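User: Teach me something about this protein's shape.
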Amino acid sequence: MNIFVGSLPFSIDEADLRDSFAVYGEVNSVKIITDKFTGRSKGFGFVEMENDAEAQKAIEELNGATVGGRTIVVNKSEPKPEGERRSFNNNRSGGSYGGGNNRGGNSGGGNRGGRY
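Assistant: First, the predicted structure itself:
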């Protein structure tokens, strides 16, 4: 079972997180998510446990526990449904002066109607 662990202290490492879950059963993998530019923890991660009953016990007992002064959130991780990935709007037709491709700066271009 894949388990989401949130509100982690930024100082916790994967070995410490593994140890917290290993009390309940065999841990297959641990991954703390980090910022790709700074390498700093984003404060959440995932733990994979083979045995669902052991994983459920870990969820029940660790959800709401205090780790490093923070109350962590632990629950079963559900995969994102296909097609619900984040997308960015690349439509550049808007802007503070509204204006499609006629950006014109402060020259009265766009949809301002020359009200300056």
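Now, about its shape. The first helix runs from residue 14 to 22. The beta strands are 2-6, 27-34, 41-49, 66-67, 70-71, 73-76. If you'd like, I can walk through any region in more detail.
User: That's plenty for now, thanks!
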